[in-house]
Amino acid sequence: MKNNLIKYLSTGLVCILVLTSCDNGFEDLNKNPNAYITPDVNSVFSLSEVYMNGQDYENHRANLIYASAMVQHLGSFAYSGDKYAYSTEWSGAFFGSTYSNGIKETSQLLFTIPNTPENANKRSAIRIMKAYMFHRLTDLYGDVPYFDAGKGYTDLILKPKYDKQQDIYTDLLKELDESAQALDASKPFFGSSDLFYSGDVAKWKKFSYSLMLRLGMRLSKVDPAKAQLWVNKAIVGGVFQSNADNVILNHATGPEGVNRNPYTTPFLREDLQEGNGSTKLGKTFIDQLQNTSDPRLRIYARIESTGDNTPASQKGLPNGYTSGTITTHPSWTAAGIKAYSDPNTLTILRQDAPDIIMSYAEVQFLLAEAAVRGWDAGNAQTYYNNGVTAAMQMLTVYGNAVAPVSNVEISTYLALNSFNSIGTNAVKLNQIGTQKWVALFFNGLEAFAEFRRTGYPVLTPVNFPGNLTGGTVPRRLIYDETERVNNTTNYNAAITQQGSDEFTTRVWWDKP
User: Fold this and answer.
1) CA gap 184, 120 in Å, rounded
2) Exposed end of the chain (fewer CB within 10 Å): N or C?
3) What is the pLDDT, as a whole number, of residue 17?
4) Does pLDDT of 104 surpass 60?
5) Are 27 and 486 in contact (CB under 8 A)?
6) 262 vs 66, 251, 354, CA distance in Å?
7) What whole-number distance in Å separates Cα of residue 410 and Cα of residue 3?
């Protein structure tokens, strides 16, 4: 049902897409009121779910070019992400598009749907989606417009002020708490218009608490006491219990845009080219999977020019190389760039590959960390084993064109890479963080946030000539360039409040 709904979503919402596709800033939030007098809230809700994790435009730039390269999931000899260089268009893309698409649609829905007891489920789900989008925005940039955002049409606020990340996080956690408590299976919901859970209110409640767990843990360095409070609240509330609870958005093979997987289109358009593309799986990532005999490698990677997905054949592209310097690297062969691994077009890079937005595996790794910190009475090793198992089993969503990971392979892997239950906390957290990093492949934004928070996995930074960080992994992205021109006063206030608009400025929760 979900596949059919999303397959025809762009056709049913063509008017809405026409209204939103050209937005590129806060000025465009002030739309013609006639366009929203009687919106189809079911269709707009579906569209908001599609927008929640972003489209190919912002995902290509923020997720693939920058975040995934910075955490060394990917490498590229053409793009700036793993070289810590600045591109106006790429760095600010996620900022502008998220406000213009997802934040605008969810804000409009909350304005349109009356705040009555009968609408509690609908409004709660929208608030959860909005919290998800805002946490990714603030994690990536720091202080951002929050309380005034999305009010161009409703309140004519065209130049919203920037809010402190601390205040944003306080409100996000409140929103998740209130929304989870308000969800009630006896009340109406969106039914089949819900692309994630087909109207299953209980799963939305788990999503809210699981997201609360993620955000609560994000405070571990800046405010451990508050972090523990919210982590415990999430656990008591009820987080994901299996892969059946995963937030997954299914896709179709066409048309390009709303329907296709947002990571697939950029690769097929310019970064694959029968193995000649400029973006490849990173050497750090490939080495990690090969060195641990990880069976996921055959699912994640293959040599596109030959179709070879055997783990031993895979070769990752070193980070920080250009087309001029890579040819001098010892790994360079006559096969050239074609010898390096691409994302597997039979699985994760299918045009209709589902998008794993948040998973039970991630939740288990967060619980493992909580146990190590003494914030949860559960067993860290059990959580770790559950997380690894779930991370391997969830890849069945990509189909069976490549053999899924078997239970025997999972047991063998856990025996070879067992949890060091007698090691130091640093050793345990490194194991947990590294496994989470692998499970977050293609979710570079979350992997980038968790690397900054935990320091794991341990990465060797790139010191590319002319980089803007002094050879250290960036701590944030730079704001959308248009904000300096169109929202100057508030932009200047933000950098005065937070610090220079640079890669090296740490966001509030990112303490050394």
Assistant:
1) 8
2) C
3) 34
4) yes
5) yes
6) 15, 9, 10
7) 30
255 prior amide bond cis, ω within 30: yes
Is the separation of the CB atoms in 117 and 187 below 8 Å?
yes
Where would I find the beta strands (DSSP E) of 273-316? 279-281, 301-302
Assign 335 a pLDDT band (cuts: 50, 70, 90): low
| Encoded tokens for 498 | 């937070």
Q: Output the CA torsion 367→372→374→378 (10° steps).
A: 50
Rounded-to-integer distance, Cα 316 and Cα 286, Å: 5
Buried b (16+ CB within 10 A) or exposed e, 368-402: bbbbbbebbeeebbebbbbbbbbbbbbbebbeeeb
Dihedral in degrees, nearest 10, Cα atoms 214, 220, 222, 225? 110
Taking the C-alpha atoms of 459, 464, 467 and 470 in order, what is their torsion angle to the nearest 10 degrees? 60
Q: How far apart are CA 2 and CA 11, in angstroms?
A: 15
Beta strand 162-163 pairing with 247-249: unpaired
Alpha-helix runs per DSSP H in 142-164 = none
Say if residue 201's pLDDT is above 90: yes
- The DSSP secondary-structure symbol of 282 reads B
pTM: 0.92
What is the distance, to the nearest Å, from the Cα of residue 109 to the centroid of all Cα atoms in its chain?
Answer: 23
**Whole-angstrom Cα distance, residue 194 to residue 200?**
9
What token pair was written down for 334? 């006559």
CA 395 to chain centroid, in Å, comes to 17
pLDDT value at position 265?
A: 80
Give tens-digit pLDDT for 152-161. 878 899 999 9
Q: What DSSP line would sit under 431-464, residue for residue? A: HHHHHHHHHTTT-HHHHHHHHHHH--S-------
Q: Across all residues in the chain, what is the average pLDDT?
A: 91
Q: Which structure tokens are listed for 8?
A: 């025809």
Quick one: average pLDDT of 233-240?
Answer: 98
Distance CA 346, CA 299 (A): 8
Tokens of 97: 């598009």
For Cα atoms 471, 448, 105, give the angle at the middle one, nearest 5 degrees. Answer: 130
Query: Of 211, 209, 212, 228, which Cα lies nearest the Cα of 220?
Result: 228
d(CA 439, CA 227): 23
C-alpha separations of 155 from 44, 148, 160, 162 in Å: 20, 9, 11, 17
Q: Give CA–CA dist 475/194, Å, rounded.
A: 35
Give the number of other Cβ atoms within 10 Å of residue 299's Cβ.
24
* Parallel, antiparallel or unpaired: strands 74-76 and 279-281: antiparallel
Say which residues have a Cβ less than 8 Å from residue 175's Cβ, sequence separation at least 6: 127, 128, 130, 131
